[in-house]
């Protein structure tokens, strides 16, 4: 049996000793191609892919010719099997060029190797450099009392604004198993997501302060079915369902949700590569009736999606009608990204988001207020005033 240690020994010896291949058996030269590939695909560090291609000319030819970096990418993220071609931005010419459009087959293979190896490296570094990845809210499957209880409220890191509690509420339903969905656009069309946070809403203005959580939650990532659907999304009211306009390429396991007023953290088993830039949160089942109408509701205060946008170093374009992708690569930006990471300090992966973090008003929130509030409204003076609880008596039903 051939063990992975054989590969590590060969790589290390080859890098550290000029006479490695004279004194050690080179399995790439001695074994069948399929067997050597099985060994090489055990690599789990993108840096090892680069090292493997640096051991010798023979190893570089083997790694590049057999598309090892692409095999590793597709093996970890099946969505990447739909990449039709790679486009590289040529900054010197200020235009995008299709990789391989005017190069030899060997040059094309070398560029593919570099791009996929760089993508692997960018994905790997996302584990130590994380941020909130939500760009704006798209739609909710239902909304009660729109726009006051809009999905946009879930992106405001405050308990209250405009003297009202900040939360999204579904419409009431007599069936406790009736699901709801929330859809968000991420900050880039290519993102690595590691975890999602959801905070159920506590109706502190109702008797007993009930918490309108879901029974469980599930997450899906994907992209619009067509460019027309994506254009339609920008025009759709946020209280109108949009689930039928997407192709979901990843669906998580189902996570139980606690009936607690806190940011609940849902860790994805492995980092998920979101191709297309859209997230759907499925809220499955209802646990709380409202006293006034005896109907079940689901309400969410806050949502955060933690990971890392890969743009502008990488981007994707979905092709109609084939649903294949164009992978866009910016070599210079990728180099700057790695440099900034090496100079910076990684974030604490165990640090949960808090409502005290600085609030940045994004375009989605601004658009919401421009559309649904009277002219002259200013985004100032928001706060968690404790003296407005009496006003909540007027809210009544969620």
UniProtKB/TrEMBL annotation:
InterPro entries: At4g00755-like (IPR055336), F-box-like_dom_sf (IPR036047), F-box_dom (IPR001810). Residues 34-73 form the F-box domain. This is F-box domain-containing protein. PANTHER family: F-BOX DOMAIN CONTAINING PROTEIN, EXPRESSED (PTHR39741), F-BOX DOMAIN-CONTAINING PROTEIN (PTHR39741:SF14). SUPFAM superfamilies: F-box domain. Pfam families: F-box-like (PF12937). It comes from Datura stramonium.
């Amino acid at each position: 049996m051939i063990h992975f240690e054989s590969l590590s020994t060969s790589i290390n010896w080859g890098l550290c000793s000029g006479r490695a291949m004279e004194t050690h058996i080179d399995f790439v030269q001695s074994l069948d191609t399929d067997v050597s590939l099985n060994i090489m695909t055990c690599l789990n560090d993108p840096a090892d892919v680069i090292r493997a291609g640096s051991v010798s000319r023979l190893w570089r030819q083997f790694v590049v010719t057999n598309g090892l970096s692409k095999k590793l990418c597709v093996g970890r993220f099946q969505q990447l099997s739909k990449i039709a071609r790679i486009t590289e931005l040529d900054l010197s010419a200020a235009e995008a060029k299709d990789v391989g459009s005017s190069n030899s087959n060997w040059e094309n293979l070398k560029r593919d190797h570099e791009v996929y190896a760089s993508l692997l490296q960018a994905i790997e570094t996302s584990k130590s450099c994380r941020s909130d990845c939500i760009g704006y809210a798209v739609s909710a499957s239902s909304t009660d009392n729109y726009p006051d209880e809009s999905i946009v409220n879930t992106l405001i890191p405050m308990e209250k604004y405009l003297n009202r509690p900040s939360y999204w509420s579904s419409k009431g339903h007599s069936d406790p198993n009736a699901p709801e969905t929330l859809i968000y656009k991420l900050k880039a069309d290519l993102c690595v997501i590691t975890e999602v946070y959801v905070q159920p809403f506590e109706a502190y203005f109702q008797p007993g302060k009930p918490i309108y959580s879901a029974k469980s939650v599930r997450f899906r990532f994907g992209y619009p079915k067509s460019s027309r659907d994506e254009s339609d999304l920008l025009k759709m009211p946020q209280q109108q369902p949009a689930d039928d306009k997407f192709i979901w390429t990843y669906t998580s396991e189902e996570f139980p949700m606690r009936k607690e007023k806190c940011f609940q953290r849902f860790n994805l088993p492995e980092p998920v590569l979101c191709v297309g830039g859209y997230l759907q949160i499925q809220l499955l089942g209802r646990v709380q009736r409202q006293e006034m109408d005896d109907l079940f509701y689901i309400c969410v205060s806050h949502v955060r999606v933690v990971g890392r946008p890969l743009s502008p170093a990488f981007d994707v374009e979905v092709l109609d009608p084939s649903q294949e992708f164009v992978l866009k690569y910016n070599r210079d930006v990728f180099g700057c990204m790695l440099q900034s990471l090496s100079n910076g300090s990684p974030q604490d992966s165990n640090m949960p988001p808090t409502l005290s973090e600085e609030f940045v008003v994004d375009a989605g929130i601004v658009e919401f207020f421009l559309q649904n509030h009277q002219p002259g409204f200013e985004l100032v003076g928001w706060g968690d005033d404790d003296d407005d609880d009496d006003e909540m008596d007027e809210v009544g039903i969620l």
